[in-house]
Every structure is written in structure tokens, then in C-alpha cells.
Amino acid sequence: MYNVLIVDDEMIFRKGITHLIHESNLEWTVIGEARDGLEALEMIQSQRPHLVITDIRMPRMDGIQLQATLAEQYPAIRCIVLSGHNDFEYARSSIRSGARDYLLKPVNKEELYTALCKVETELTKESESQSVAEHMPSQQVIRQQLLSSLIHGNIAYDEGELFDQASISFPHNGIYCLIVQLDRDSVTEQRYRQNDPELFFLYIQQFVREIIIEPLQGYTFIDHHKVVALINSDRSEATAQQIKSLSGQLIRNIKRISQMTVTIGIGGGVDDLESVPKSYREAETALLYRLISGGDQVLVYESSTTNTMPLSRLQAADRHFLEQLLAQENGQELTKQVQAFIERLCRQINHPEVIQQQICKILLECYEIALDYKVLSEWLNKQDMGMILQQVLLINERQQLAQYCGQLLYSLYDLIQRKEGHVIHAVDQVVRYLEEHYAEPITLNLMAEKVYLNASYLSSLFKHRLGHSFVEVLTEIRIREAIKRLIHSDEKIATIAYDTGFVNIRHFNRVFKTETGTTPKQYRDSRRHYQHPV
């Protein structure tokens, strides 16, 4: 059994999550509940859980501070973060701080179980890592683990014995981090799947070792489908230029020999081991600019981040944007529009974190729509929303991001259409409602809510599809019904006015005359005279 600690300042959420875990068939035991980060740390010190599920906003010590403390003091403990829809920035910080998942409140049972299974799988693989390590010399295993822990800041820097044991030393006064990523669009899907994907990274690593590590000095290793190099040399402009030049040579050689391309991100130089995570984060940030300028090139942190756009100048992508896409009658056209939007976003915005923010907001709106249509579990397909957002934050290639988001929105579109049974255009849905409920108080905003559209967008759809405004269509339906009653009944005109949705008789008279050229009484008299001549 694995142990989990629940941390939230609201008792109802703590008890709710505890209950969900207890009623599951998973290998998890709740060992306690804490009201904030400080209380959680006291329990962690004595109980050492495998996992902490924590809220973000809490008094005394919040979830972000708790995660930072865990990463420093208890790096083996996993963390899952809880947050509301308005905590996007906090959630992104949590994900980048190493949170395994990000769950939206109120917590969905299936999402929670999926996240727990994911962590359970990780823990099980760790316990089996000894058998994997038999295929690798022990010193190499230790070196890989130490270097990986070093770039992520999960190591005590005074543990000199471990570095000595792994034969790791950094004698020069400068350390530069470099990350090489395969440009997936340069490799056909068939070629990628026919081989073990790990072979591509081993292949790239060999080039890094020969072209960059040998002329300089340092170490290279594979970390989460990325080839990482830590270069140890004098910290100077000349060294930085040499690393950039060798990186360009590496890109050209790989393309010439293997017919595939890579992109390289280079962080700034640092003076000590404690600052290595900073250089690594800078290299990651440099790689993000592949979204803007494309791959197959060297991206250096300093030059990549000089031209940015203020956040205040951008409009956040909202539900209105999604409504336009999901109103498409052709699902393939929807996919094209999503991909075109992301391509345009990447071209127009020269700040990759803003691009990620826009796309994450779109996907959170998709989450709400999936909830509204009751297709959430089918749409997420055994994942949770945190995993979806994590994937967005990891993608730094424009085409891959466009393809990923296009598939997600098409999947949601398809589920909604299949659930409805057939495609009914939003305007047709509204007209059908108007014909059945014309006597009731009806507004454009009310109709927009019923078809999950923005009111102004629904209004534009009416003009485009029918050539008339929403008010014109509603008035036509009401006048048509009033005419039937004027001709075929002896009801009083005032009664007909109220029963067909008009506020009062004067309003009815004015609108009726505008539409027909006569008053209701004149219309009734003329029609009856025509039908029953003397």
C-alpha cells in the first residue's frame, strides 16, 4: 500500500477526497489530513508519505511554498495540486515545480483515480529500477541520476562523496546547460514507430558527445526525451560563442547524415553547482521560442528573450472563440481552423509563455463545455485535465502543438455531435425554441445561454444564416401566430397580444402595423370580409 497526505484548509474538500480514496480499489491509504503547509510538514516529517495532495491557496503556508519545501527536503515525495479555475498562474508554477498532476476543484472521481494510478505506476517502476540498472554499469547509473537531480535542483550540493563516486567534477569556473530536442516533424511517424524512440536520443547523444563534449569538457545524458549537456569551461563570451558555433555544427551534421533535424536551446553560464538549475531553465525557455521561430536552429537564452510583448496588449482566448469553432458543420474544417489559429498565435505573439497561457485557457473552457454536455470522461480518455495542461507546457514545437490541440477539439466536437445524435445548427435550435415558446419572455441573452454561445456571436449567426436579426425572426413568429388567431378565433385583440408574447396592446398594435401595414382590427375585419362576402 502507498500512503497519501491530504492538505486543504477546507474540511469538506479534505473529507471528500479521503472518502473517494477509501471507496476506491486502489493501493492507497490516507495517513492524515492537514489544514495548511506548516501542519503538513510536521506530519510529513514523522510519517513520510509517498504522495501529498495539496490545495494551492491556504493560510500560513500555501501549496506553492509547500511544494518548494518538499522539493528541497523530501524530493522523493510526489505532489498533486488542487486548484480552482482562476488559479492558472499558480497551477503553471506547480507543474513546473514538479507537481505530478493538477486537478480542478471540485475534484472529479475519475480524474483523481487516474492521477493516483499514474503516481502508483511511477512508484512501482522505481522499486523495480534495480533490475533495469543491471544493464548499465553502476557508476553510469549513479552519474545519470546525479546529473538529472542536479539540473532539477533536487540534490544537496555539499554531497561531494556522491560526485566523487560517480567521477563527476567541474574544475572550471563556468557551467553552461544545453538541451537538444528532436524535431518530430522531420521524422515520419512510420520511421519513428518502427524504431525504439529511445534510439533516436542515444543517436543524438553520441553527436553531442563527439562534437561538443570532446572539444570542451562536461557531461551528456538523456532526461525525459531530451539530450542534456552540462559544459564545464571558463565563463566568458568566447566560450559562449564556441558553444553556439559547435551547436550549429552539430545541427548540420545530424541533418546531413540522418536526414532529420534537431533544435538546441542554450542557457546562460553560471558559477556554481547550485545555479545549474537556473541555466537549465534558461535552456528550456530558449527552446520554447521554437514555437515562434521554428526548429532546426540554435536558440540562445539571452537573444531569445529580448523581444517580448506585454501581456496587457493581448485578449485572452475565451468561450466565444470555441463557440465559433464548435458551431462548424464540418469537423475537418474545425481541425483546420484550430491549427490555423495556433499557427497565427505563434506568429503574432513573440512570448512563448503567453502562447501557452492562451492555449491553456482555451482548454479549460473546453473542460467546462465537456462538463455541460456530460462527455468529460470520454473526452479526457482516462487522463485528467492536469495531464492535458502539462502536455501543453511541455510542447515547444509549433506544428506539434497545433496538431495536439486540433485533435483535442475535434474529439470534443465529435463527442458532442454523437451525443446529440445529429448536427443541429445553433440558429435552427433557437428558431425551434422560439416557435414553441413565443408567448414567453424571450431575450437574445437567454437564447445564447441555451445554445452555449456568446450573445453577440449568436446575433451574427442569425444574420449570416437567415438574413434577419434575432428580433426580426422572433417578431415574425409572433405576428404569424397572432394572424392565425385573428382570422380563426373570436378572442379579444388584447388577449391575442398577451398570448403571443407582446408586452401590451399598444406595443402589439404598433409592431403589427409595421409588419402588415394595417392595425390588428383592420386586418381581422378585412380578412373575415374576404372570407365571408355578403
Low-confidence stretches: 130-137, 304-316
Averaged pLDDT: 80
Question: Quaternary arrangement of the chains shown?
Answer: single chain
Roughly how many Å apart are the termini? 95 Å
> What is the strand content?
5-15%
* Fraction of helical residues: 55-70%
Shape summary: elongated
Radius of gyration: 31 Å
> What composes the largest sheet?
5 strands, parallel
Strand order of the largest sheet: 2-1-3-4-5
Provide the structure class: alpha/beta
- How many β-strands, per DSSP? 10
Count, helices: 27
What is the element layout, followed by pairings?
Layout: E1 2-7, H1 11-22, E2 28-34, H2 37-47, E3 51-55, H3 63-73, E4 78-83, H4 88-96, E5 101-104, H5 109-127, H6 129-133, H7 138-152, H8 160-165, E6 174-182, H9 189-194, H10 197-213, E7 218-222, E8 227-233, H11 237-258, E9 262-266, H12 276-288, H13 290-293, E10 298-300, H14 301-304, H15 319-326, H16 331-348, H17 352-372, H18 376-380, H19 385-394, H20 398-420, H21 426-437, H22 444-450, H23 455-466, H24 470-488, H25 493-499, H26 505-516, H27 520-531
Parallel strand pairs: 1-2, 1-3, 3-4, 4-5, 9-10
Antiparallel strand pairs: 6-8, 6-9, 7-8
Helix pairs in contact: 2-3, 10-11, 16-20, 17-19, 17-20
